[in-house]
Specification:
Elements lengths: L2 H6 L12 H11 L8 E9 L2 H13 L3 E7 L4 E10 L3 H16 L4 E7 L3
């Protein structure tokens, strides 16, 4: 491996990895060797103060095409709703999905609690 190959993996393309929270996470995934061109299940988490509100969000997210799981998150003393969808983890995709779901969650008193996926 030449120095150019070494530096290629280290030089941050701000159009792919902007300097915001999602860009930072994606950049770290890229640096660790994750192939960010591979489609995978992505989980987006939301917290709700009451089960009824979490269930209302569950129905709305399911109608939007997400696989949804609701559970009690003891450590955070809140209802946790995981919304899963298969996509390529680009900054545009993650930010768009996070924004869409956050807007719907807010109507039920929910707030985002991050996203994640299995490395490829």
């Amino acid at each position: 491996m030449g120095i150019g190959d070494f530096l290629k993996g280290r030089s941050r393309d701000l159009s792919r990895f902007p300097e915001d929270e999602n860009g930072e996470v994606l950049w770290e995934m890229h640096r660790s060797g994750d192939d960010l061109t591979v489609k995978r299940d992505m989980d987006f988490a939301f917290l709700f103060p009451e089960e009824g509100r979490a269930r209302a969000f569950e129905r709305k997210a399911a109608a939007m095409g997400y696989e949804v799981d609701v559970s009690w998150f003891k450590e955070k003393r809140a209802w946790d709703v995981q919304c899963t969808i298969e996509l390529v983890p680009t900054h545009v995709n993650v930010t768009r999905i996070e924004g869409e779901l956050s807007a719907v969650a807010a109507t039920e008193g929910g707030r985002p609690d991050g996203w994640g996926c299995v490395a490829q």
